[in-house]
C-alpha cells in the first residue's frame, strides 16, 4: 500500500496528491491520500510500505507540518518519496531538482535515505490569499516578472512531470 501524505494551504498540493493516487489506482496499485496539514500526529498503519510526502513552499520554506510529522514517525522500514510544490518552479530553468532554489532546503527536512524527490510548479490564485499574502505575492511576482493582476488564477503544474514521478513510483516496486 502506498500512502500519499500531504500538507496544503491553498489546495494545489492536495490536487497533485489526488492526481498521483488516481494514477496509481488506475495502474492497479493500492494507494490512499492523507492530509496532515492540521494533523501532524497522524500515525501510519502497518500495511503502508511506501510513503509519498507532498509539501509546498511558503515564504521560502517547506511548510513546517512536514518536518513535524516526520519527527513523529518510525520510518525505518518504509520507502519514502517526496515532492515539493512552489511557484518559482513555474520557470523551466528553475523547475528541476538540480536548478530549483528550494530543492536543498526541501531535501534537508527529509530523512537521509530519501532519494526519489521531485519539484513541481504550483498554482497562483490571488483570490484565495489574505490581504497581506496577496500583496506579498504580487510584489514577488512583480520582481520576478510574473502576473500581478489580483484576478490572476493560473495553474502552472506540469502534469506530464507528475505522470513521470508517478510512473517512477510504480517502477520502484519491481
Ligand atoms: C503566502 C504564500 C507564500 C508563498 N511563498 C512562496 C515562496 O517563497 N516561493 C515560491 O516559489 N512559492 C511560494 N508560494 C507559492 C506556493 O508554493 C504555491 O502557490 C503552491 O501551489 C501552494 O501550494 P498549496 O496550494 O498546496 O498550498 C507562496 C504562496 C503563498 C500563498
Q: Which structural class is indicated by helix and strand composition?
A: alpha/beta
CATH architecture of the largest domain: 3-Layer(aba) Sandwich
The DSSP helix count reads 5
What percentage of amino acids are in beta strands?
15-25%
Into which percent range does the helicity of residues fall? 25-40%
Q: Outline, from the CA principal axes? A: globular
Distance between the termini: 14 Å
Q: What small molecules does this complex bind?
A: flavin mononucleotide
What is the C-alpha radius of gyration, as a whole number of Å?
A: 16 Å
Mean pLDDT reading: 96
Number of domains: 2
H and E string: EHEEEHEHEEHEH
Number of strands: 8
Largest sheet features: 6 strands, mixed
**CATH class descriptor of the largest domain:** Alpha Beta
Amino acid at each position: 500500500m502506498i500512502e500519499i501524505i500531504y500538507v496544503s494551504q491553498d489546495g494545489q498540493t492536495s490536487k497533485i496528491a489526488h492526481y498521483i493516487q488516481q494514477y496509481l489506482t488506475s495502474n492497479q496499485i493500492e494507494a490512499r491520500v492523507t492530509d496532515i496539514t492540521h494533523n501532524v500526529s497522524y500515525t501510519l498503519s502497518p500495511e503502508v510500505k511506501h510513503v509519498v510526502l507532498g509539501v509546498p513552499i511558503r515564504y521560502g520554506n517547506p511548510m513546517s507540518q512536514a518536518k513535524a510529522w516526520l519527527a513523529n514517525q518510525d520510518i525505518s522500514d518504509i520507502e519514502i518519496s517526496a515532492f515539493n510544490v512552489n511557484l518559482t518552479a513555474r520557470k523551466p530553468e528553475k523547475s528541476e531538482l538540480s536548478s530549483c532554489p528550494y530543492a536543498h532546503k526541501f531535501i534537508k527536512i527529509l530523512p537521509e535515505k530519501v532519494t526519489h524527490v521531485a519539484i513541481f510548479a504550483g498554482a497562483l490564485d490571488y483570490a484565495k490569499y489574505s490581504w497581506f499574502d496577496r500583496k506579498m505575492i504580487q510584489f514577488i511576482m512583480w520582481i520576478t516578472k510574473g502576473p500581478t493582476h489580483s484576478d490572476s488564477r493560473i495553474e502552472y503544474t506540469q502534469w506530464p512531470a507528475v505522470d513521470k514521478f508517478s510512473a517512477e513510483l510504480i517502477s520502484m516496486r519491481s
